[in-house]
Amino acid sequence: MPKPRATYEEKRDAEVTNEPFGEGAREGARTLVGAFVVHLHDATRSHYDLRVEANGVLASFAVPRGPSLDPEEKRLAVHTEDHPIEYLDFEDVIPEGEYGGGPMIVWDRGAVRYLEGPSEDGLRTGKLDMMLSGRKLRGRWALVRLKNDPKAWLLFKKRDPYAIPGVAKEDDVTRLERSVLSGLTVSELETRRALGEACEHALLARGAAEGEARASAFWESDALPPSETHVYEVVLEGLRVRAEKDELVVRITVAEEPRGEDVAEFYPEIVRSLRALAPERVTLEGTIVAFDAAGKPSVSVLAERARRVATGASHEALVTAPVTFVVDEVSSIGRATCVGLPFDARRATLDALLRGDGFVQKSVLLPGDERLARALALDHGLRALAAKPRQGDGTFVRVLFGPKVVAPPIAHGVTRDALRVVRVTNPGKIYFPERGYEKARVVGYYRAVAEALLPHVRGRPVTLVRYPDGIHGKNFFQWNVPPQMPSWVRTVAFSDEESPERTKRGFLVDDTETLLYIANLGAIPVHVFSCKATSLARCDYVAIDFDVKLSSLAVATRLAHTLKGILSEIGLVGFPKTSGQTGLHVLVPLGPGQSYDTARALVQLLGRLVVDAHPDLATMERAPQKRGAKVYVDTGQTGPTRTLVCAYSLRAVPDATVSFPLAWDDVHEGLDPTAYTLETVPKLIAARTCPMAGFDDERPDVPLAVAKIAARLGRK
């Protein structure tokens, strides 16, 4: 039986660690083929962690000495807590003080096929016979549980062509120390940013200019130019692309496609590897290659994989048909462009950037003169070579040795909507037990209200409160986006208000697919910033939250109308909505360009005026024990990283109520917030125009409003 994932969650603080949090084990799973990862982790002491897919999660084993290719070397593997499937791509430095604090790289990654039945059965009986197809570990491996300790297993290599009996320690597979994602070692991971900057500085030192990257150009020929003036490079059959990384944003465009359509959605493992590279900004050129069962490049395998990804079978396609991005040119790093640099300078840059044999690796050069290069190419079944001038200008020669194999039109005939299919994982998981609402129902709600909700979050940073096990399970804020997010999800970086030196990265929920993606992550409420991503230092609305925990909503509606009158007097407009729980929100648009200091001062003055008008009913006292039975007028939701639940967002409460926009006529003593639920809101939306429709169009004179408040306070 799978271990409960609560063990994983209980050991980690979701608001501090950068590790992913996914869903729990999937009951009834029968995994015959899945994914595996080996992490190299420098925590209290350096060790390896083998994780294999089972029950929809990763069964995890700590292997202190790591794997060995010698079948006689049986390595202790301690069965630890299950990890979420999202851990397959986790590579980062876990914060000091957190469980497992320290750097962790993806040492190996690939597919696992279970040879004696589903992995779930093997975990129960204590024996896993596995065929691994990784970048480093290949062939048959076994995990066998010891009799006297249920946590103690042995990991060892089975005898097959990949085994090396008697291999010396210094020649064993653990000598390969680099990540298959980033190409970095564990120690280098902690200095990733500095290494990226060093790559850029080295390129500038080699004579690179500053400017825009330029794509390479090929012309075809039957003859190899002389080796005195050219270098020969292996050309593999596949899809020629140009990849651009800008922090976490990755674009992959087909080099010979005039429309320049982004096809990154087809190659998520390449996207993740590019995100992991040390430079924050880099442009690469090369070929995406898939291999057949014989290990030869195959455009038909590449095309079939693309078809499966486009039909929603992304995880299966990644497991059974992995791809490699073979890079032959670095066009730019940061502000440094390689245009005009000689070949040796460009190649030295590529050698420094791509180390190891991971998902992104450098091309192979052939030695010798043109006769030897041609012979080597034909011996290895190559159909083409590239000849690059030693004093290059970005124009290369492609020499064919047979009929040209055209890569399939990967980007043709498949719409973006088809690529952006969000598959609901564990759709039957109960999220709202009192109502019996399953996860699929929650995702369906957000699909139904997307058109109404998106205007309230579009262009604004969004943070998630995730409930992967439903509203009564453990929940946590997720400030940073997960590393395995699809390439089409947009993000924005912002500074932590309390620790400005720390940068976080949140979602931009600009379309239905992204909204459904975060809902599938278990995000029940959607929290939004009071600023646009394009102007993070400027606030464009303030909010007052009438908190009625020890009072009544009827009193809050009275206070809200008092606020409405004050706003009208000073030239501002308020937009009310239910909080989705027991309270009431009033949002006041400020238009663009207001500083947070001005916005905070304004909202505090507004709160003070409301309290002054009803001292027996309202308070701004922050300590709950000092409020008595008064409504708390909360003006503290204004700040660079302060968030408020958005309009039409669900709340994680038993009745699945919704934060619902109201007309002022709806704000009366009989207002019932429980009338707005997952069940009722889609119908209500269809029957009316949103009362907040003009919210972003307001352009009030904020300085004049502040002056009027000051004058009003001065009269008292």
Question: Terminal Cα separation, in Å?
Answer: 71 Å
How many structurally independent domains?
Answer: 3
The CATH top-level class label of the largest domain: Alpha Beta
CATH superfamily of the largest domain: DNA primase, PRIM domain
CATH fold name of the largest domain? DNA primase, PRIM domain
Please give the order of strands in the largest beta sheet. 1-2-3-4-10-9-8-7
- Count of individual beta strands: 35
Q: Which radius of gyration do the C-alpha atoms yield?
A: 29 Å
Shape: globular
* Residues in helices, as a percent range: 10-25%
Determine the strand fraction and express it as a percent band.
25-35%
Structural class by secondary-structure content? alpha+beta
**Count of individual helical segments:** 16
Uncertain residue ranges:
1-5, 411-416
Query: What's the main sheet like?
Result: 8 strands, antiparallel, barrel
Indicate the CATH architecture of the largest domain: Alpha-Beta Complex
Overall pLDDT: 88
